[in-house]
Amino acid sequence: MKRRPILLTVSVGARRGGAAPRGMILIVVLFMIVLLALLAASYSYMVQANMRAAMAGHYQFQAKMAAESGFQRTVAILREARNDPSVWFNNPQAFRAVLVEGTEKAVTSAEDTIIRRSETGWYDPNAEPAWRFNVVARNYEDPTTVRYGVTDECSKLDLNSATQEQLWRLFERVIPQDTTNPVDVGVLVDSLLDWREPGNSPRANGAKNEFYQSLEPPYACKGAPFSTIEELLLVRGFSAWVLFGEDYNRNGLLDPNEDDGDASFPPDNADGVLYAGIAPFLTVWSREANVSADQRPRINLNMRDTQKLQELMSEEFSAEIVSYVMQVRSGGMAFNSVMNLLPAPPPPEAEDAPQDPQLPDDPLNPIEDPAASQPTTDEAAGIDAGSQPATTDLDQSGAASEKSPDAKPPLFKDLTEVPPPGTYEDLHLILDRLTTDPVPGYSGRINVNTAPREVLATIEQLTDEEVEAILVARGDLAPEERRTPAWVLTRGALDETKFRWILPRLATKSSVFQAECVGYADHVGVMDRFNVVFELRGPIAQVIYTRSLNELGTAYTPHTDELRTATQGGSTRTKR
Question: Where are the alpha helices (DSSP H) in 245-347?
């Protein structure tokens, strides 16, 4: 009987002793549940973050492919109309808001798309998925907006062939002379020439190895042609401000941070005017193939096989012109310019005009690239290696009196006592189909159809009034007129003496082009920018240089009308 209380006591004690472990287990279980919930939430967040990253990468890739589509569209258009700048120089219908993938619901044109999207801003998250591209370029005539098109490299000044006078003219026109960023143009010009030319003796304001070796870190003076425009940053006197100015994102537009003084980068003077540097006016890829507008090799007036010359010319030229060419060649003379087929202009009125024969039709720098669009045999091209144009003491490099802005035009003379039979009506065909220089192509010539006034003004013989006359005359040219420089004379922009004088410096087409391609979407805020320089060798586009511009920022609001205008206080606005 006494054992029962003992058993009861033990049982009660056991129950009391187990309360603490059971409470602890409950706490542990709750803690584990919270921990698992946190782990699940973290895992879910990580999955979502990875999904967003994957989608961002996917969107960026799609934007890049859209931009790449812009490049392919550019090549396709140039293959068909490379000699007609009206098709590719500024053509919003071909290069603006072009749909690559997606649908265009209730939208009839790219312009309607821009208007609709501009009401919602940069992009519309609720829009139908659609990917597009723009091909944009700097608008030289109106820097408050962009140009939708391509830039030919012959519309710029070639760094590797520009004369000292040309460099002076460009830098003095483009670089602002203010107290904030004083620039010595003499140092820029001399240092640039020293950098691209061999030798160890610097010019008066230039620099060679001795200067560059004293820098930290030291490096050598190249003494060879420039490879890129950015290479100028290695040359004495050139800085990022000289090269790119206030245009930090390189879009050619005055953005708010580029017109606020010292409030933000980059440095600027807050004057409401964008200084975009000298880079937009320079190139190292200026090349023009020595072919006609339809890509046929030109007929060399000085070919050795005169019978072949007569056959080729008889297919396209009048009997009078062919007969005159045969008369000159049978007399043992050689043509030094295709302009020999037109009567020489009367001599200048000035008595001290230099007595100089016809200027040669030679380029500033013949291209020695055998892969250019030219036949590989002398017989196919009609080239006579032993018969070269007559030389003169006034060559294309500007080494004689033409280098001076006060130089007098030469006295042009006919090759025979009988005036040549060519007329202004024949000039277009003469310049298109004939040559006196059997080289594959030219470098350093300036495209009179597309070059801005700053580049045209670097031609030493042109006055400001003549530059403006050229710009006005080319405003309403027909595509056929743009194929040769003949319109400069026939439209009255220049007289015949001045035209003949500068003809060897002029081009009307280019083999190398530059395009900035921008890929973007209607429904997401992703953009891809890249710059590409390519050469058309026949129908083949060979990429020479390419660079991503994404690190410079988006720079554009592609669904709006790209327009920047200055307002008070140094800020800018975007017009929609």
Answer: 306-314, 319-330
